[in-house]
Amino acid sequence: MRSGKSIRGVLHYNEHKVQSGTAQLILASRFSCDIDQLSFHDKLNRFQKITMLNEKAKTNTLHISLNFDPGEKLSITQLQSIANTYMDKIGFGEQPYLVYNHTDAGHPHIHIATINIQPDGQRIDIHNIGRNQSELARKEIEIEFNLVKASSKSKQEQPLTPVQLQKVIYGKSETKRAITNTVNEVIRSYSFTSLAELNAVLKQFNIMADRGSEGTRMYEKKGLMYSLLDSKGNKAGVPIRASSIYDQPTMANLEKKFAQNGERRKTYKIPLRLKLDKILTGPSLTKDSFIQQLQKQNIQVLFRENDQGFTYGITLIDHGSKTVFNGSDLGKAYSAKALMDRFIPAEARQPVNEGSTLAPKTRQEAVQSDLLAKEQSNLLEMLLGKADEGQQVLIPRKKKRKGRGFRR
Asked: pLDDT tens across 195-224, in order?
């Protein structure tokens, strides 16, 4: 539920969905004609005639979203009945309102556009309406219409699927719709505490949030763009400004979410550590087996490496609890260095000769060893005269040490 002072903006949002074929107007309550006879201006004028009766009101618009379980198969008639019942229960049954059925997500949901200014100019108080009237109405409607209870649903919701890039890069409207749907769902569902952590999730769905390079005007002004990514992870299509997306996932708003999510994800910190501990105590653990065992538990691990193959960071995305953690956030034992030191390289998983006391090298040690070997090989080639043809290898002569005594 969102409140504001622009019924025009709410109408534009829903009508755009209708035009793009992803929404349908299914109910117009307290309007003078049938749905198919209502133009955009008819809808807007109906609302504005009433809001003009109280121009001092700072808030006069409500945009409500009622979401249902993915398994629910609700008819248009049922959705209309649910909408009418809900509006009665929150005290808006006598207000004009429009109900749109949206079909652009993995679950059924409807949007309701209305105003809180009454025909006599009085304002309906909406302070804490979401926490009080709306929450009570939801629980009663779940029982009355035999719906799946929101309180009984676990975090194991219908998973998002990666945006199909080839279907959306050819026009701005399609790109914006794909980005909007995925960004809104990720921000709503996942707990992340930085832009890097948000991007760790978004990139799984071929999308990236971009602040621009440090020192640019965009970066300094905390601007933010969302772009689609191709199969190689490169930006493609038309980038979308965060401010142009209805839910306003701007940098300023995201920073507020960072603080909130820091508290929300605390509950899932210890359970994730216990899952990691169980895997890390296993024998002959390699990086690949570590990744595979976490995937079985719906946990995705991302290793950040530099150009030399040295791992300097690790991010864990728990799709079950919808939380994102850097390894170091869980504790020193789960940092990139600590984990890499525990892995056995795949090539080192071979029988060791009896009596040998040499332990297999870790991946980090192997990388460092390879770099050292290359340096030694280059030096050896120079000393043996294998440098470029015609190039003479110069070996500095040892300077003769002068005596310190007096000459006779």
From this structure: 999 999 999 888 999 999 988 999 999 999
Q: Which pLDDT belongs to residue 389?
A: 45
In this structure, how many other beta carbons lie within 10 angstroms of the beta carbon of residue 272? 22
Mean pLDDT of 386-400: 48
The domains of the chain, with CATH numbers, are 2-152 (3.30.930.30), 165-265 (no CATH), 267-348 (no CATH)
Percentage of the residues of the chain whose pLDDT score is greater than 70 = 78
Tokens of 253: 């708003």
Q: Which residues pair with 303 in a beta bridge?
A: 314
Kindly state the tokens that stand for 296.
């079985």
Q: In this structure, are strands 207-210 and 23-29 parallel, antiparallel, or unpaired?
A: unpaired
Check if the beta carbon of residue 202 is closer than 8 Å to that of residue 228: no
Report the b/e string of 129-154 with b at 16+ CB within 10 A: bbeebbeebbeebbeeeebeeeeeee
The crossing angle, in degrees rounded to 10, of helices 172-189 and 195-202 is 120
Q: Are strands 109-115 and 225-229 parallel, antiparallel or unpaired?
A: unpaired
Give the tens place of pLDDT for each residue, 282-317: 888 889 999 999 999 999 999 988 888 888 899 999
Residue 120 pLDDT greater than 90, yes or no: yes
Q: What is the pLDDT of residue 158?
A: 52
Are the C-beta atoms of 158 and 106 separated by less than 8 Å? yes
pTM of the model: 0.60
What is the dihedral angle through the alpha carbons of 80, 83, 85, 89, rounded to the nearest 10 degrees?
-170
Residue 163 one-letter amino acid: V
Distances (CA, A) of 204 to 144, 162, 229, 337: 39, 7, 10, 24
Average pLDDT over the chain, rounded to an integer: 82
The two tokens of residue 202 are: 């978004």
